[in-house]
Amino acid sequence: MKTYSLEELTDLYIGKPGTPKRELFEQELRLELIGDAIRKARKAKHLTQEQLGELVGVQKSQIAKIENSTTNARFSTILRVFDALQAKVNFTVELDNQKLLLSE
Question: Which run of H or E residues covers position 101?
Answer without folding.
Answer: strand 98-103
